[in-house]
Amino acid sequence: MGLGGIMPRKSDEDPSARTANAVKPQGSDGRVEAPLTGSGNECLGSNDLMERVCERPNLQAALKRVRQNAGSCGIDGMTVEELPGYLRVHWPRLREELLAGRYQPQPVRRVAIPKPGGGERELGIPTALDRFIQQALLGVLQPLFDPTFSDASYGFRPGRSAHDAIRRAQAYVQEGRSFVVDIDLEKFFDRVNHDLLMGRLTRRIADRRVLRLIRRYLNAGVLADGVVIGREEGTPQGGPLSPLLANVLLDEIDKELERRGHTFVRYADDLNVYVRTQRSGERVMASLRKQFGKLKLRVNEAKSKVRRATASKFLGFSFWTGRGRTIRRRVAPPAIKRMKERVRELTRRSAGRSLAQTCKSLGVYLTGWKGYFRLAETPGVFADIDAWVRHRLRAVQLKHWKRGRVIYREMIARGAYPAAARRAAANSRRWWRNSAIALNTVLPNDLFKRLGVPKLAS
After folding, report:
1. Residue 24 CB: number of other CB atoms within 10 A?
2. Which of 172, 386, 413, 156 is nearest to 267 (CA)?
């Protein structure tokens, strides 16, 4: 259901607002002004940004995106599917509060998820309503801010992806920049200084209502164990607005690197600067420590290093040198290790699920994994992983058959030679060994494909 049946008709609005472009400001006489983008130092728009946030096309797009992203409930328990009905009743009041600058966001719900390298990452899940309002803010602010960001910034920007960032990094290494200054920021999203961030936003946004609303989102607090904890720093991951705010703050680092003529790639808080020598890298590292210090951000000294580009990893990928000294992409070893750990969880032989059920859940995971890591130029590695995955699935089926006579009967029914079936039945508890030797013909590769397990090497 779209917003057409939810939002009231704007008959009470200024007629010029109904025809305004969502990303082009208008002058007081209704004429469309020149796009307000450029070097990043000028103010964006006039005092009508909140009116543009509340325009019907922008709200419709925001609701559609929030429903597509789904996600967990906030502290009020409202789901994204319940949101349209809520807006149908309460939107006139909410719109009045937003335009008057009175809207007060609710605290976020704290959720901790495990980090790939160990430890936990805290997410702050806003309510469905606040996700919708943040998305509407983003729909107006993103087109204004984005053209002013550095060309080397790729995280959470329209038309850009992690794959684009990896290709650019690969090109720098191919050019002979064989050392990388690999920067890891310590709990970046938890340590964003509110005053510094708001200072950058105030230089760029003229509408004080938008600024007040962003400040309220930053200060809304976190609900943990039934108690609301106030926040004096940080922009909780989980809301649509947080990535844009991160880019606004870190764009200062990008501009300084550009001013000094460095080649770099940044994806959110992952920053790699590519240089030709170890000594150059150490100088850049020292300079970046000072720059991040000015923003009251801390460099994680244990994870931030100057190293050979082929010994580093970036966004789950690393590089290797192929024939003719061509730089190639591969899946970084830690990413393969994490993938295998997850596959082991999904194919546990004691899970009590049928082979079809196991393949269904495994197929969902591997399809997503393949979609991201398809950029790797290592078909042989993918072929080895395919074989290992099928080996585990055959062991699952063998465990389900369990007894020797059942193994013999099922294998014969699927066309196995009697001698092979007898050998497998005689060693019925050796599931891993038998699955590699005896089950290749009775459980062929095509079976797993039909059950939804994708082939990685394609």
Report:
1. 15
2. 156
Whole-structure pTM value? 0.82
Which residues make beta-bridge pairs with 181?
273, 306
- Residue bearing tokens 């964006």: 44
Task: Tell me which H or E stretch contains 306.
Answer: strand 305-308
Tokens of 308: 């050979």
Assign residue 118 a region: left if phi > 0, alpha if psi is -120 to 50, beta otherwise? left
Q: Under a CB-based contact definition with an 8 Å cutoff, are residues 277 and 176 in contact?
A: no
Buried b (16+ CB within 10 A) or exposed e, 38-65: eebeeebbeebbbbbbbbbebbbbbbeb
* Burial label, 4 (beta-carbon count in 10 A; 0-12, 13-18, 19+): exposed
Quick check: helix, strand or coil at residue 258?
A: helix
**Number of neighbouring beta carbons within 10 Å of residue 102:** 11
- Cα 228 to Cα 218, 219, 223, 231, 235: the distances in Å are 14, 11, 4, 10, 16
Can you give the pLDDT of all 458 residues of the chain as single tens digits? 445 545 544 433 433 333 333 333 333 333 333 333 444 555 555 688 999 999 999 999 999 999 999 888 999 999 999 999 999 999 999 999 999 999 999 999 888 777 766 667 778 899 999 999 999 999 999 999 999 999 999 999 999 999 999 999 999 999 999 999 999 998 888 889 999 999 999 999 999 999 999 999 998 877 766 666 667 777 878 889 999 999 999 999 999 999 999 999 999 999 999 999 999 999 999 999 999 999 999 999 999 999 999 999 999 999 999 998 999 999 999 999 999 999 999 998 776 789 999 999 999 999 999 999 999 999 999 999 999 999 899 888 888 787 788 888 888 888 888 887 887 777 766 666 666 666 777 888 899 999 999 999 97
What letter does residue 20 receive in the DSSP assignment? -
Query: CB burial class (10 A; 0-12, 13-18, 19+) of residue 213?
Result: buried
